[in-house]
């Protein structure tokens, strides 16, 4: 498929972008590491070489109080310019363009020096901000302009002013967080004076030949957010004061509506960008859950936007645009929206990377150079760990033979992709399969590896990536055929009834509850998804919210855990709340502190505290973790060859594709 609209240049008058693809802002954590700007330069340079039209950096604070965290990056002084020039030089060497995002955290600042329009604490940070004085507001506007001027001096092609996602500018715009009674609060005109004056001050400092992107919150998704008329009015004012492009911002960070997780339908929010496109002439960028060139092409070709922003897809694949231009979209390593190695890392103050691409943000450290000695390597298991290792090892020149007992590759991903909202896992299987073909990995399906094969075919090393098997519980009645494992259910080996109890409330238990509660995935039905989360496309109310539509439960589901701690505590930092909300939507009964006694014709006998009860269920599904599948380990070690364990066979505490794929990459480099 060709992508003529996606790859068409965009003329901004004083400069031209080579295509309509923006690499959206992401904080990587490299900004604060020692030597991080050299690593950041390599990271951005690869994306520039990969063909992206314009890059936007992670948020850089315009002053000390605007930092996201105490040691976060800022650009306020001339002596800070040199390290930024390392990045811009690297991007320009690759014929790319790059803008620096200026972000003032406001009340989202994770430090005691945070400031905001009003003294109102954020629900997602422990610190209460101080209210800015009128003088501090004016000084902050100057700080934005100074930061932009220094960015120009550092070689950036422009700046993006972060005016969405609930950060400082958004906090001024909305009466929800702006309770001021001076010239910066009260009326709408007063509240938007702050962003307008920032853009005016920046344009005055940088001149006409400098890109200014304003990231406008077009859909706040919080109570008492902006109305649609206010969004339009601000957009028109920004156009008049000289912004080059308006980028779409969706949802505040405190919003209780998912906006970028894998369960969000692809391109779900392009409609709001399209709506604004009828009101302004400045180029608009659509964003959020755009992860394939096909989606990007559709959005631009249909007139919904002039550009598309993709952030995490460029973690997943630096060559995204080049592959699309070459008509090889099947070779793109697609972002699955999992958040596990990017946003979850960022919020844990760790370096961001990517579950499906462990090289992301490790471009100077994780490279697959040709091996000095080419080896013949046997791999048992074609799950994520085995496939990742085989590809990276083959890239280094090794001859790799993969043995898979089942009739298809994918391992646990073949189960995961059946969970509503996790359909993207299909893309990773597709990508790995294509890469195995391209790198001439020999794949033997329906074939188990045994010691005789290893000896007869003269392998040099053995890699076991045969994954995990579900953990069984030795309790009375648990040998009943009505007690089954999650693998049996997801594989279609067994059918379960309308009343089920799930033992184990980790990630597998939550996934199974979702799978059983939602027979048809709302992720594949956007209108149903909007209703489920209370998103009003008519924009009748402020913030674009309405009451979520509750559906009658499709099954009676009990989710049980032994621990007395909060259910789902171990889920992803940025997605756990979504999973809990989905289960509440499906009216799943969640019980903690459960002791299991036995199962019989009456049902599952349990005890919660001092209360004994019987759950009248048709089936019990075991989701209580898994154990390493080590049946081959001793046999392989007896061959005398080096044997390596990766993925679940190495550590099976919880299914962890991020660790499995990274282990495969690191082992490929080591051999």
UniProtKB/TrEMBL annotation:
Names of the cofactor(s): FMN; [4Fe-4S] cluster
InterPro entries, alphabetized: Aldolase_TIM (IPR013785), FAD/NAD-bd_sf (IPR036188), FAD/NAD-binding_dom (IPR023753), NADH:flavin_oxidoreductase (IPR051793), OxRdtase_FMN_N (IPR001155)
Domain FAD/NAD(P)-binding residue range list: 376-653
Domain NADH:flavin oxidoreductase/NADH oxidase N-terminal, first and last residues per copy: 6-327
Protein keywords: Flavoprotein, FMN, Iron, Iron-sulfur, Metal-binding, Oxidoreductase
Record family assignment: In the N-terminal section; belongs to the NADH:flavin oxidoreductase/NADH oxidase family.
Family matches, as PANTHER family: 2,4-DIENOYL-COA REDUCTASE, 2,4-DIENOYL-COA REDUCTASE [(2E)-ENOYL-COA-PRODUCING]
Protein name, per record: NADPH-dependent 2,4-dienoyl-CoA reductase
UniProt source species: Shewanella algidipiscicola
